[in-house]
Amino acid sequence: MAKRRKGKLELDWVGKGDIILTKFDEKGKTYPASYFQGQVSDEELMPREFELTESVGDPKSENMLIWGENLIALRSLEREFAGGIKLIYIDPPFNTGQDFEDYEDGLEHSIWLSMMQNRLELLRNLLSKDGLIFVHIDDIEQGYLRLLLDEVFDRRNYLSLISWERSPGAGIGQGGKFLINVSEYIYVYAKNWEAISRVKPTYKREIPLKNMKQYNRILVDKGRKELIKEFPSKSNNLPVKVYKRYDYEISNISLKDFENRKDEIVQEYVNNFENIFRTNRVQKENRFQQDLISNMDKDLYSVQYTPSRGRTEGQITELFYYRQELFSWLKDVAEIQGNALLKIDKINDFWTKEQLTSAGISGEGNVELRRGKKPEVLLDRIISMVTRKGDWVLDCFGGSATTTAAAHKLGRKWIMVEVREDMVKEKALKRMRNVVNGDTTGISKEVNWKGGGGFKVYKLGEPLIVKHKDYPSIKIINPKYYNTALIKVICNVEGFKFRKNDKLFHGVNKLGNKYAHITEQYVSQGYIDLIKNKLADNEQMIIYCFNYDEKITLPFNMIIKKLPTDIGKAFQLRLRL
Ligand SMILES: C[S@@+](CC[C@H](N)C(=O)[O-])C[C@H]1O[C@@H](n2cnc3c(N)ncnc32)[C@H](O)[C@@H]1O
């Protein structure tokens, strides 16, 4: 097999470019089936239909819980969702070489890399222009994964490597070849880093008492001001004006008996939010600030100037000083939502177990997953940080549905794919039903989750082309597909958008100038003559049929494709071999 070389630094491995599907043996155990080794056919890889098996809760809900192999499911989602997903979070098997009770882990190294590459390429297509992917991994594969992600997403789109302190550092039963292993990692890549370069993720939480104690003064009245000094700034020559304040009023907020008076105190903060401050000593190294305070005594002063850099660059800015210390305003680090006072923190790349604990996750969603289950708080942070209500969130290694449980409670739309039937039925489905019915575990309390919404459960449909029952060397259209189902699935495989109520123009391409017509009838000259008048000169049509008269004369803008031999070609070309 010829190797693709892009002339870039990239990781190579045996069998790179192979396509790996997760299949099940007779005992129901999963194994990685290889395309190179003939264990996977072209037909199997074609996009499929999603068969609706159940609708839970709100019948209008678009959320999808898909039972099926994720490579094929992602291919099948492409038609509708390419460029439409804001956030992808995946937590693939970490390839730890162990057989877990709940799912098999431990694919051979190079197979794992091929398996990941296949999926990452498809996931990239699904991301929106400003979309982000978070890939969860452990210390064993993270180095290899980095190179793979750089190759698929481009190095420029690498954003962060988050270290998450998964478990406590001490205790019997902790793993690690040398040091006790407490961390897991999450790679963050953008589809296009430029589209999100201005986004600075923040995290909001109830303001801690410690911060309230610091910010406990109110500038009730700024008083009247008198100019005491004016000079040009050294950095931009614009005027710096120093004012002394007279008849001002500063009061304190009492935090006494906090536990019993919490509501009353928070209300006081909310009422005075705009004017609450603390003061900080001016740094010795900051010459500009030192010069300013050299003009002041222990009273209240204000300074008006135009910064030459920083957040307020070029804007006239007013600073306040009291007892020669500089004011910091609460409103710059906090926010009011309803009646709650929230602290806004910039997010760094080290996520501690205190912030995001995995203690007690076995009970989350009322389903168990002995290893690999992630806490809802972790997903809450990721989802809240980069998406808004109504955005699409996708997880194609769904497991016990942590991602979708958090996404649902946060009002995001979601798609989950999971290959194992037991995992879907006994864990994911059970958990998501609970969520719709008002699950009280996980992040429910924090986000005030009371239930609601809904989702659809789908099963990945059978392949469009199958072997003939009696003559396995002959490939036929799967007899399961006829009438509308056949039309839909052929539109999907051939890249047309299905047009529900049109009896002639069954599917249309992206540009809107090429149509598909699918028929199970014999196509004669008379059949063509009836259709051709409906087609404008600048439009084209492909007719898909099982049989046709070979002597037919076709107009210049029509072609015939025979089922099943002539279909799926466009898709096969797109497989990167
Ligand atoms: C580490 S677990 C995910 C756990 C999940 N984050 C949670 O909190 O429950 C990985 C999951 O991916 C599933 N999986 C592995 N290969 C898959 C494939 N090819 N298609 C779909 N799911 C797959 C496994 O069955 C397993 O449930």
Give the topology, please.
Elements: E1 20-24, E2 30-34, H1 42-45, E3 50-57, E4 64-67, H2 70-81, E5 85-90, H3 109-126, E6 127-137, H4 142-153, E7 158-165, E8 183-190, E9 202-206, H5 209-214, E10 217-221, E11 224-232, E12 239-246, E13 249-252, H6 258-271, E14 276-281, H7 287-293, E15 300-305, E16 317-322, E17 325-329, E18 334-337, E19 340-346, E20 350-351, H8 376-386, E21 392-395, H9 402-409, E22 413-418, H10 421-436, E23 454-460, E24 465-467, E25 475-477, H11 483-494, E26 497-498, E27 507-508, E28 514-518, H12 525-532, E29 540-545, E30 558-562, H13 569-574
Parallel strand pairs: 4-22, 4-23, 5-6, 5-21, 7-20, 21-22, 28-29, 29-30
Antiparallel strand pairs: 1-2, 3-23, 6-8, 7-8, 9-19, 10-13, 10-14, 11-12, 12-15, 14-17, 15-16, 16-17, 18-19, 24-25, 26-27, 27-28
The chain binds S-adenosylmethionine (SAM).
Task: Describe this entry's structure for a reader.
- The longest helix is centred in the N-terminal third of the chain and has 18 residues, at 109-126.
- This protein has a ten-stranded mixed sheet, sandwiched between helices.
- Helix content is 23%, strand content 29%.
- Helix 3 (109-126) runs parallel beside helix 4 and helix 9 runs parallel beside helix 10 (421-436).
- The relative contact order is 0.13.
- It is an alpha/beta fold and 577 residues long.
- It contains 13 helices and 30 strands.
- It has three domains: 46-201 and 348-460, Vaccinia Virus protein VP39 (Rossmann fold, 3-Layer(aba) Sandwich), CATH 3.40.50; 206-344, no CATH class; 465-574, Trna Endonuclease, Chain: A, domain 1 (3-Layer(aba) Sandwich), CATH 3.40.1350.
- The site of S-adenosylmethionine has 19 residues, from strand 22.
